[in-house]
Specification:
It is built from no helices and 9 strands. It is mostly beta strands and 167 residues long. The chain is globular, with a radius of gyration of 17 Å.
């Protein structure tokens, strides 16, 4: 679900991913992804909340340590323009099925819109075959006004459950 600040409430958010990973020489991997996020139950008039985000990621494994850098461009940010994100991540395999990781992101908002901010997180990911559970603690430096004076921007715990369809 999603907690939009609209009336009547928008109760559903659906994210669709498609991507391709290529292994390069020297243990490098290059991944291209396309994310489309839709809000099919939006009943409020006005701009769509839908988001299209192409992303390019480069990673390198050094034993149990994996270093990753990615860049993403987001179009149609709630009708407010575009956003660019750069992110760095370090992940360490504790066991074959459990990894600890941390990341830091820098977001640059649309021209003329002051939405630049930093975000960070740290957590663990457990994987079983195609299923993964990610438990994480993270936060941002956004001001309360940018979060509609809610608790949305306060650091907190969150979880993601994912199923990989393609091997």
């Amino acid at each position: 679900g999603v907690e939009e600040v609209d009336t009547p409430r928008t109760p559903v958010e659906v994210a669709w991913y498609a991507g391709r990973q290529v292994t390069l020489k020297g243990g490098w991997k290059l991944t291209g992804e396309l994310l489309y996020t839709s809000f099919p139950a939006k009943r409020v008039p006005g701009p769509s909340y839908d988001i299209v985000e192409p992303q390019l990621e480069v990673s390198r494994s050094l034993g149990r340590l994996t270093l990753t850098g990615d860049a993403a461009f987001e179009a149609s940010v709630s009708g407010g323009g575009h956003e660019f994100r750069a992110k760095g991540k370090a992940s360490f395999a504790l066991t074959p099925w459990l990894a600890a990781s941390a990341s830091f992101s820098r977001y640059l908002g649309a021209a003329g819109v002051d939405l630049d901010d930093d975000a960070w997180d740290a957590g663990v990911t457990a994987t079983h075959r195609r299923l993964s559970l990610d438990l994480r603690y993270g936060g941002t430096d956004r001001a309360p006004a940018e979060c509609f004076f809610t608790r949305w921007c306060e650091p907190g715990f969150y979880a993601t459950l994912a199923y990989r369809v393609w091997p």
